[in-house]
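Go through the following before class.
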Amino acid sequence: MKLLLLLTIFSFICTVATVTSSSSPLPTDDNGDYNAADIIEWIRSKPGGMIHDSLRVGRERPGDPNSINGLFVKSDGKAIEKGEAIAQIPWDCTINPGKKYGFYKFEGCPGIYNLADELRLGEKSTKAPYVRYLLNLPRGTMPGEWNDAAKDFLSVVLGHDQLPPYEENWKFDFRNNWVQRCEGNEKDEVERAAYFLALSRDEDTLMVPIYDMMNHSNDPMKLNTISYKPQKAGDVFRVVASRRIEPGEQVYNSYNRCSRCSIDLYGVDPENCESFSYYRTPDIFSHFGFVEDYPQSWIFDSNNSSDDDESSEFDFCMPKNSKTGEIDVYWGEDVDDQDIAWSKTQLKRLRKLLNKKKDLEKELVGEEDDKIGRYQWETIWRYHGALVTALESANEASFFDSSDDEDRNGKDEL
């Protein structure tokens, strides 16, 4: 989904490839930063299309190449009030599955085929401003799209399917979902590009301009919008402010609004979760290629259960305490001694791997096709760090302290 941050990492990616070189240059502001002016004008020109006058697309600090790209309220603009529409995207501006679209059903294959068709049309597409933006996005940002060297090392970090995300959800998802389920062409580079663009940027089966440029957060101090999908084909896609958004503030969306942590900790109503994602932190990593900030939602499978009817999974939420800045741990299920032992084994393995990082970097990282690119290498180690922090925090929490069940000084169970 969404992450306009991708544009900031263009120069770090060795495997950048665009589907076609015939697309027009992207529009920029006075500082040379992409500003989506063509998309905004195009949406506003359509019946029912609206982009709030106070919005801008660009960097957090204009002209600073080290600052994040995203959607912001203009510093000299008016605040956006709670309940006010931020954007209305007409159906004709989305890339969608056509008449197969349904609010309650997922029809991924037709939408991806339609996306591939639009990419092939390029500047001849009726959605050219949006297609131009998509064609200029870098490739190779998601684990499933990495080369074999990067994929293989990520598998090593994950203990060859001992830790999430599991390989069927990232290493083999293109083959399983696109080639087999959708009967796609494994060798067609446009179809491959369309598949990964849809995986990382769509809202279920809809590719939605401007909306997909909003960065992700579930932090209740940051998250400030809620979206409304079309009820039926032909309706508009709406984004509304969920609280007052001040001038200069970034406009955020949640990529996993209905994760269990959001439901249990922040009061998200599960009755209204039909069109929102239940992803956990490992899913965010595999689908979008980044490690989400706190709160994080984790689930592990210790594979210790001898009874097929008894789950060996244990899960927990990790929010950041707004007063102390410390990471809290809240359990969804109790854990047993086997889970404790398993988690300590994983921590030991991950720490051992970290001690070898410098030697591994000399051996594995480079610009050659059979080496790991710098961006992929750094992304893998960011996720490695997130795994270590999660398992360490879990070990310190009360239900991992099995030495004295009557004296638990960890966190509370949900």
Observations:
- The first strand starts at residue 50 and ends at 51.
- The domain at 4-146+185-254 is CATH 2.170.270.10 (Beta-clip-like).
- DSSP finds eleven helices and eleven strands in the chain.
- The radius of gyration is 22 Å.
